[in-house]
Amino acid sequence: MAQSHDMMSRRPPGLRLFGRSGSLRTYQTLVLVLTFFAYTCFHMTRKITSIVKSALDPQTKVGFSHWGRLHTSNTLNIGWLPFNTVDGSALLGEIDVAFLAVYSAGMFFAGHIGDRMDLRIFLTIGMLGTAIFTTLFGAGYWMNVHNFYYFLVIQMISGLFQSIGWPSVVAVVGNWFGKSKRGLIMGIWNAHTSIGNIAGSLLAAFLLKFGWGWSFAVPSLIMAFVGLIVYIFLPVNPKAMEIDIDSGEFNCVKDTVKDPLLEPGQEVKHKAVGFLEAWRIPGVAPFALCLFFSKLVAYTFLYWLPFYISHTRIGGEYLSDAMAGSLSTIFDVGGVLGGVLAGHISDRLNARAITAASFMYCAIPALFLYRTYGSMSIVWNICLMFITGMFVNGPYALITTAVSADLGTHSSLNGNSRALATVTAIIDGTGSVGAAIGPLLTGYISSKSWSAVFTMLMAAALLAGLLLTKLVCAELKGKVHSDATKDATDAQGTYSNEV
């Protein structure tokens, strides 16, 4: 009775009212929808600052600088102090770097904590915290705040709460879905990243005419509302709902529970995995380092693509900043397809490393062609940008979703599934370091040569692929051995029939 009461207490309050009325498919659908909208909100609020920069500093061109640049008093007649100064773009760049630095560092701690507490509560904390501090950034508009360090500190704390989101949603989805179609499901589900970017851009741009503070406040209110819905309705795992994921039926579990992601019948006690132990899981380090370079490429496009387009003559003329920003969303559209394709292919081949490495190698010629021929016309630019986004974001989406979930339930853990958030945090946290370094380097290199920037991106894509070489060889060797075993079995069956 005590055990049953403990399980009921971990049910979301909104689902306790329905008792045992839900089916496995119903809960899986609910998990996908709620986590999809939850992480859409994270990216929606993350995108706001890049849109509002034009209102804070009308002269800004999304750049980065050394830390500690002194402020000047040579202000302009429009914009918002201290950002409408000669150093305005540098200060905004420092805020970007600070956000990404805290976000990547916080990711490691977030995963460690997430495996040790209720992920529904932890995710809600991340969403409400992000909403509060995003609102406080915008509140500077109404409170007439002009202190740079106010905005810097607010954005850093926001980055800390943002780091809770990804390990939490991947762990929850991983708990509910087996490995057979996980790549395809998560590839489709991962579209929330691009949809959040697009929604954040459109909403923030629309609200700018009412005052830049509203561009922060309204998306934050939306995120807070979704966070409350998550708290009320999100089922974290089948155990909390007393469901046997293998049969889809209700299963009252006593002291142990079947791991939904490992072999049927394997019993496991829930004990969180340590940080160093998670690093030692086979495949975690190579995929984490691969994501470092993959995310370096992806986030360089995220921060610099609109700037690059507006400063490149396309079809003989330059596009406006607004047109360049709209055109850059094609990269995200290509990324959605890339994520779905990478997930589906890796499922069919049962080869995550081969798929991820192949996409990264294909990204190299795609980057070269976009730099070389993207300026010929708008049509060429759109087509090549779409292809580049597909190959760049495909492995990025695959590694941060299906691969993280696979490694979080690796056989070396002996059935312990409570490493999902930690492994996800290690992989994406390492990748986020690359996400901070890529745009930072681009800020310096682009002032001399955009060709050098693309050379850097192609080198990063090559390194990302090479880092998976050992895992690719292991997967190929496994497939050869599997095919040989199958042929031997078929031959033995044929011989038996003839006898």
Structure report:
There is one protein chain. By secondary structure, the chain is an all-alpha fold. It contains 19 helices and four strands. The protein has a two-stranded antiparallel ribbon with strand order 1-2. Strands 3-4 form a two-stranded antiparallel sheet. Helix 4 runs antiparallel to helix 17 and helix 12 (284-310) packs parallel to helix 17. The radius of gyration is 24 Å and the shape is globular. The model is unreliable at 1-9, 60-77 and 248-270 (pLDDT under 50).
What is this structure's SSE topology?
Blueprint: H1 2-9, H2 13-16, H3 24-56, H4 88-114, H5 119-142, H6 148-162, H7 165-176, H8 182-189, H9 192-207, H10 212-233, E1 243-244, E2 249-250, E3 257-258, E4 267-268, H11 275-279, H12 284-310, H13 321-327, H14 329-349, H15 352-373, H16 378-407, H17 420-445, H18 450-466, H19 469-498
Antiparallel strand pairs: 1-2, 3-4
Note the main attributes of this structure.
499 residues, mainly alpha, two-stranded antiparallel ribbon, 19 helices, 4 strands, disordered N terminus
- Structural class, by secondary structure, is mainly alpha
The largest sheet, given as strand count, sense and whether it forms a barrel, is:
2 strands, antiparallel
Number of strands: 4
Q: Strand order within the widest sheet?
A: 1-2
Ends distance: 60 Å
Shape: globular
| Contiguous runs where pLDDT drops below 50 for at least 5 residues | 1-9, 60-77, 248-270
Q: Number of DSSP helices?
A: 19
Summarize the amount of helix as a percent range: over 70%
What is the assembly state of the chains in this entry?
single chain
Radius of gyration over C-alpha positions, nearest whole angstrom:
24 Å
Please state the average pLDDT score: 80
Q: Which percent range describes the beta-strand content?
A: under 5%
* Element-level helix/strand string: HHHHHHHHHHEEEEHHHHHHHHH
